[in-house]
Each structure stands twice: as C-alpha cells, then as structure tokens.
Design goal:
By secondary structure, the chain is an alpha+beta fold. It is 42% helix and 8% strand. It contains 12 helices and 10 strands.
Amino acid sequence: MDSLTDPPHATGHDARSRSFCSIVPPHLLHHLARSADPELHLPARLSLELDAAHRSRRRVAGHAAVAPEAIAARADDTPKRTIYDAHHTQTLPGSEVRAEGAAATSDPPVNRAYDGLGATYDFYLSAYGRHSVDGAGLPLNASVHYGRKYDNAFWDGKQMVFGDGDGRIFNDFTIAVDVIGHELTHGVTQYTAGLDYQGQSGALNESVSDVFGSLIKQRHLGQTADRADWLIGEGLLAKGVHGVALRSMKAPGTAYDDPRLGKDPQPGDMAHYVDTYDDDGGVHINSGIPNHAFYLLATALGGFAWERAGRIWYDTLTGGHLAHDADFAAFAAATAASALHRYGDGEEHRAVLAAWQGVGVTPAATGGAVPRQAGVPAPTTE
C-alpha cells in the first residue's frame, strides 16, 4: 500500500519541528461541529479554532531547542513539575497553583495533572533511565482549565495543556493518565527521532505516543500485557456516549460508534489503510496499524509490556537509526534491528517480525547496522 502524499507546506524538517499534537483527532471534532445541537457544535467549533491557532503558531515558532549546557545541570531523579490554572482563558500558562513538592490543592484537575506528569516522569526514569522528555531533566509544566468547554489536550512543544471538556461528549482531560503520557511522549519524540507529523511518519509519531501512553498506564496500575485494556483515553467519553475510549490498540476501529461522534475509523492492518489529506494525512487514523502491531508483539511476549516490547520500541525511537520521514516499512525494519541488537536472534526478534506480518507490513531491506545517537549508550542483552 502506498504511503500518503505530503502536501508541499508540511514536508521534511518543517513538519517535524512544527507539529501541533493533540489527543482528540480533528475528524472527530469536525463530526461534532456539524451537529444541530449547539451544546455539541459550539464547543467543537471553538476547539477546532483554538487547535488551528496553535497549529499555526507552532508553524511560525518552530522548535526552540534548549542549550545542552543549560539542561545538563538539571538532570536528576526528581521531576520538576509546575501546574498552572488558565482560568478558562486562552492565555498560557496562567497562574501557578502547584509547584513541585507542594501539597495537593482542592482542585482535582490540578492534582490529576500533577500526578500524571509524575507518573510519566517516573515511568521513563524507572523503565529506561530517561530523565524527563528531553533526557536531561526538562521541567514539566502544565496548564489546566484552558478555554471554556475546550474538547482537547495537547503538547505544544514546551508544555501540556488540558481542557475541561464539554461535559456532554468529553469529560475533563486530566482524567486519563495514558492521555498525559501520550502527549508528553510527543515531547520525547520531539527530542529524539523527530518523526515528521505527516502521512505514515506522522501516524508513527501518534502511534509511539499511544504505545508509551498505554505502557505508562499499565505500569501505573501494575498490569501485565494480558490484563491491560489497551485503550487510549478510557474514561474521557462522557456518560451516555456509545464508546469506551478514543482508540483501541487491541481492536482498532471499535473504540466508539455513536451518532454524535461517528464510528471509529482506525484500521488495524494495511489492507484497510486510509488514503486522505485530512488530519495531516490521517495521522490519528492509520496509527491504528502500528498500534496493533505493538499489541500483537506485547501479548506474544507476555509479562509487563514495557520490559521487552516497550524496550524495543524505546531503543528504536531513541537510537538514532530512524529517518524523520520513516514509513511503516522502515519503522518495522528498525524495530526488528533493535530486537536483534538487544536480544539476539531469539523469541523477541521473531515476535517483532510476526507482529508486523500480522498487520500486513513488510520490513524494508536494511544493512542491519543500528547506529546510536550521540550520548546514547548501546543496549546490552539482558
């Protein structure tokens, strides 16, 4: 199946460094925006307008790198979290309401954001020895109560932003720890592989965030692969909505089917790949394919999914061997090379190849070498 064609304004390094990454896909908000019910279409239309403004701002501002000497001194084993309250305005970050180490407040979204940032920081540190999203102790900032009935949450390249939801379709976006982990993982990708947010590389960008968002939730709950629900955004859909989450890694295309939202359009294999220019080339749609490949790998290996399956994906993301415009075939080859490099030609390597075969992706031919990023140690067999 051919990959999507990139529009001329969103190719190469521009698409990588200027992406705006939100948890609710635009196709879902567009569906709500066409509703005749003003309680549904007004929040959705406002959310789309705000998302478009942030997307444009990211394209102008690009990615502001932090000087290595400035971040090196920050790296330790303690997160540096600050939570702000936007007070239902569109001004960021808002007023500071909880700093690192401060007691819980009386506002549940503030505390959930604080705890979710901490769970994500602890996951990357404990599982992979990574200090924050940049690997060097970057402070984690978040703003809650952004806008009025804002139906989204996003990473803007510097911080997390949470809407309260409209109360009819979406609940408060701090509820789901996997959503927090998903968005912060966009930051990890930003500082490592820098996958272009367009077409198949963009779907991989989204899928990597879903993978680690789910793993963060699984580790937080102490779940093995067979016990996990493999849902992204479970709890976000309000009471009365016919659905369980935004996406399902176990069964793409089954997360929701509601007359107000439409039906989950995600494919689970290349036979159902969606060619579209919408949503940056279907980045939130076709991500179902690599999502399902990871699910197949994790459940085949068993145990805690972050230990072997997650390690292979993490090595691939951070190892320096991915092109920023990698397609599914290139990513499949890179994960196979990572598995071979870390574990040898054994169960893990065979399971990776079987997982990609299970979704109809044939790994691209490679030279077999796995170069490393500067400062990233080569993995050792465990």
